[in-house]
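User: I'm new to structure prediction. If I give you an amino acid sequence, what do you actually give back? Let's try with this one:
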Amino acid sequence: MSVTLTEQAAVQIRRHLENRGKGLGLRLEVKSSGCSGFSYQLEYVDSVDPQDELFEQFGAKVYVAPDSLPYLHGTELDYAREGLNEGFRFHNPNEKGACGCGDSFTV
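Assistant: Good question. You get back a string of structure tokens that encode the predicted 3D arrangement of the chain. For your 107 residues, that looks like this:
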């Protein structure tokens, strides 16, 4: 099982942690939510859960809970700017569809 980061995502993770002044990385999870069934959640990691899988690239760490791994296998975490909008993007080969607003997905 693997999750990868683009260099731009890694830069943003490191920048967010630096601005925050603490933290080891980000935790990426899939939660039941939204009109399509699942949503991505990112949160800061201040202490490691020993069950989490660690994925590290370009000096940035992403922790994934074991129950989220099957939904995230092969996912690339990216960071993009489009006009006035910017944020993390998930390129997940397991997604079968997404809701119209883009906040949730189905597998």
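You can read the tokens as a compact description of the fold. Here is one thing that stands out. The chain has a mean pLDDT of 87.
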